Amino acid sequence: MSVKRLPVSPPIRRKDGRGRPSTPFLRERILQSAAELFADREFDLVLIDEVAAHAGVGKGSVYRQFKSKEELYAAAVIDGFAELQREIRTALAGCTSMREQIATIVRHTVRFFWTRRQFFALLRDPKALPPSQERQYRAQRNDLSRLISGVLDEAVRRGAMRPGFDTRIAAEALLGMVRGINRYGREYTTPDHAADIVTSIFLDGCGAR
Question: What pTM was estimated for this model as a whole?
Answer without folding.
Answer: 0.80
